[in-house]
């Protein structure tokens, strides 16, 4: 059973919390780091953040 996605405010609050926890541990997150953490939270741990992730292989010739 899929959970309903969080409201927009809660999604932003989750992102702020990720950044604060990283800074508390002495890390400064880059944009890609943040996207990867959001992906892991949502896809691996089942946190219903409501983001859509798609991957493409790019141009392979």
Explain what this protein looks like in three dimensions.
This protein has two helices and no strands. By secondary structure, it is mainly alpha-helical. It has a domain of 37 residues. The model has no long low-confidence stretch (mean pLDDT 86).
Key features of this structure:
61 residues, mainly alpha, 51% helix, single chain
Please write the string of helix (H) and strand (E) elements: HH
The biggest sheet, with number of strands, parallel, antiparallel or mixed sense and barrel status, is: none
Q: Which residues sit in consecutive blocks of at least 5 with pLDDT less than 50?
A: none
Classify the beta-strand content into a percent band: under 5%
The gross shape turns out to be globular
- Total of helices: 2
The portion of residues assigned to helices is 40-55%
- Cα(first) to Cα(last) distance is 40 Å
The Rg value, from CA coordinates, equals: 14 Å
Derived structural class: mainly alpha
Please report the total strand number as a whole number: 0
Average per-residue pLDDT, rounded, comes to 86
């Amino acid at each position: 059973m899929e959970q309903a996605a969080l409201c927009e405010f809660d999604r932003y609050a989750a992102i702020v919390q990720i950044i604060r926890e990283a800074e508390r541990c002495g890390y400064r997150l880059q944009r890609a780091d943040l996207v990867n953490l959001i992906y892991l939270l949502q896809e691996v741990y089942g946190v219903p953040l409501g983001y859509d992730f798609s991957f493409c292989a790019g141009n392979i010739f």
